[in-house]
Design a protein that fits this description.
Blueprint: H1 3-10, H2 12-17, H3 22-35, H4 38-70, H5 82-104, H6 112-130, H7 137-165, H8 172-178
Helix pairs in contact: 5-7, 6-7
């Protein structure tokens, strides 16, 4: 143990009892103000400026990414997500299958106007989807799906009626398969 430490331990009670005057604290305060390191202040200001620039660049990048993603061209269900792409492929194959079956009865002209009208509706929905505000896409996608379902239902009903009215008008290739 050195002498200073020994002195402090022996006179501890005296240190705790005495309080320095306000003049001592004022002198200390003035002395510290004069000795405050200027380099540290400059460094802190530069770090704050760098942090502000970094924050602005990050916010700008995120804002730009949001705008790019919100203005992406969406024209079909396949452009929305892989699940919607698979759904669209299924609906298209169903429509094509039913149109082919109806054509085999030589009755495909019956629904031509209805199918064209539904195609126009679908094209309008595609345009709406391209310009849809955030949050409204799901409603438009649902309407597009309903358009496909309507096409399939119309085609199925026409096929069923044609089969009831004239079951012998089936194409000869289909007759050979059923025999």
């Amino acid at each position: 143990m050195d002498n200073l430490e020994k002195f402090i331990r022996e006179n501890r009670a005296g240190f705790d009892a005495h309080v320095p005057s306000l003049d001592v604290w004022a002198n200390l305060d003035r002395h510290l103000e004069r000795q405050q390191p200027k380099g540290r202040v400059v460094l802190m200001r530069r770090l704050r400026a760098a942090a502000a620039v970094l924050l602005l660049l990050t916010a700008g990048g995120m804002g730009g990414a949001y705008l790019v993603n919100s203005n992406r061209a969406v024209g079909t269900l396949a452009d929305v997500s892989p699940e919607h792409a698979e759904m669209e492929r299924y609906f298209r194959s169903q429509v094509e299958e039913k149109l082919t079956k109806l054509a085999s009865y030589n009755q495909d002209g019956i629904v031509k106007a209805d199918i064209q009208e539904l195609d126009q509706t679908y094209n309008q929905l595609k345009k709406e989807l391209e310009n849809a505000p955030a949050g409204a896409e799901e409603r438009i996608i649902q309407a597009m799906i309903e358009t496909y379902q309507t096409k399939i239902n119309i085609l199925q009903q026409v096929i069923e009626k044609v089969e009831k009215v004239n079951p012998t008008s089936i194409n000869t290739a289909e007759n050979e398969v059923s025999l």
